[in-house]
C-alpha cells in the first residue's frame, strides 16, 4: 500500500470523492493529484483502481489489494497479437510506444522493420531524416524526390538555427515534423537523435531496402556514423545506395557496411566542398579504392559524379567494366573524352564540353554517323556494339549500345 493510504487515507478519500462526483477523466484527475501531492505518493495504477471503486459508489478504504489476482499486462498478450499491433504502426508511433517501458522497448526493437527508403543529410547545426515506410505519399502530378524529402523528413535543429526561440536552450534539440507540433527535447544533440532513429530502423530489416541516401554536408564528427555502422549485426541490405561527400572520405566509412549481395545501383557524388583532395595521386588512389570494393563490383548500375577540378584518372577505366561518369570540370585535353580508355563506360557526361568542339571532333576523328544535329552513332570496331551520342543543352551523354 502506498504511503498516502498509510498516513493520510482520509485526505486521499476526500480528494478522490470530489473528482468522481464531477466525473473528471481518471488520467487528468491523477495529473492534478500528482501536482498537489507528488507523483511518488501513489502510482497511476493504484490511483486508477481506487478511482474506479469510488466511481461505482464504493467508498470503503479497508480493501486489501494484496489479495487481488495478478493483473495481466500488455506484454502478457500472445506474441502474434503483439506483432499485429506493432506491424500496423508507423515510425513515429513505434518510437513513442517503445518509450512506455523497458519490455515494450525490447519488443519493438526486435520487431522486423518495414522501411523501403532511408534518406539522411547531416549538417553542422541541423540533421534531416526521412524513414519511408510507404505510409506517406506526396500528392504530386510528377515524381519529385526533393519535394518528398523536404515534405516528409524530420528536422532535428540545434539552438543555432533557431536563435530567436527563447524556450530553446543551447543544449536542446528542436524536432520538427510537417503537420505535427514542434517538440523541444532537452539536453539532446541533433545528429545523435537522427542517428539513433535511423539505426533503430536498420536494426531488424524485414525486407531489402529500395534505397538509402547519405549526405554529410558539414558535420565534422561524422566518424560517429561509422562507429554505429560497426555495431549492426549484419550489413545493410539495400538495392540502391547514394553517397554525397563533402569531406573526400565518406564513402570509405559507408561502403564496407553495405551488403554486396543485394546491391543493384551505386552512386557516389563527390562535391567535396569542405575538404577537397589537392593531389592527382590522392584522387586517383581514392577512385581506385572505390572500384576495388565488393559493392562497386557487384552493382549493375554504377555512377561517379565528380565536381573536382583535378583531372579524372581515365587510365583506371581500363580495369573497370561499364559504369556512368559525370564530370563537372574537365581540365585535361578534351580528346581524352572519346579515347579507347573511356569506351569502357556506359555513359559519360561532361557539362564543360561545348557543342561546337564535340561535333567537329566526331566528324574529324571518328567514323560518326549523324542521325540528326543532336544525335550520333559511332560503330565500335570488331563488335556488335556502337556508341550512342546525344548532345544536350549543358552536357554530352555517351552510351554503349548493343546492335
TrEMBL record:
Residues 263-290 form a coiled coil. GO terms for biological process: innate immune response. It comes from the Eukaryota. Keywords: Coiled coil. Residues 71-118 form the F-box domain. This is F-box domain-containing protein.
